[in-house]
Amino acid sequence: MYQRFAEKGRMLPEGVSYINSWINEEVTVCYQVMESETPGQLQQWISQWDDLVDFEVIPVISSAQAREKVFAEM
């Protein structure tokens, strides 16, 4: 994975942004925060790497959006 990254970079399609990442101390799990305009764009990026790594996509919202959601349901 690191070799491909060194050779080709992140290979981000248009509309996908890398925010940050954290890796566990054993260097076996990487958590990445990515931003995309559509799920399809994110899937394009995943397809560049899924031969080397497994992905679990967890959609998230901002704290402000969560607050609005919670108060809208009250």
Summarize the helices and strands and which ones pair or pack:
Layout: H1 2-8, E1 16-23, E2 30-36, H2 39-47, H3 63-72
Antiparallel strand pairs: 1-2
Order of helices and strands: HEEHH
Distance between the termini: 46 Å
- Biggest sheet: strand arrangement: 1-2
* Beta strand count: 2
Beta percentage is: 15-25%
Molecular shape: globular
As for the number of domains, it is 1
Assign the structural class, choosing from mainly alpha, mainly beta, alpha/beta, alpha+beta, or little secondary structure.
alpha+beta
Number of helices: 3
Radius of gyration: 15 Å
Report the helical percentage. Answer: 25-40%
Ranges with pLDDT <50 over ≥5 residues? none
Name the average pLDDT: 95
**Main sheet, how many strands, which sense, barrel?**
2 strands, antiparallel
Description:
- The protein has one domain.
- It has a two-stranded antiparallel ribbon with strand order 1-2.
- The chain has 74 residues and is α+β, with helices and mostly antiparallel strands.
- The chain has three helices and two strands.
Summarize the structure.
By secondary structure, this protein is an alpha+beta fold. Helices cover 35% and strands 20% of the residues.
Provide the descriptors you would attach to this structure in a database record.
single chain, 74 residues, alpha+beta, two-stranded antiparallel ribbon, 3 helices, 2 strands, globular
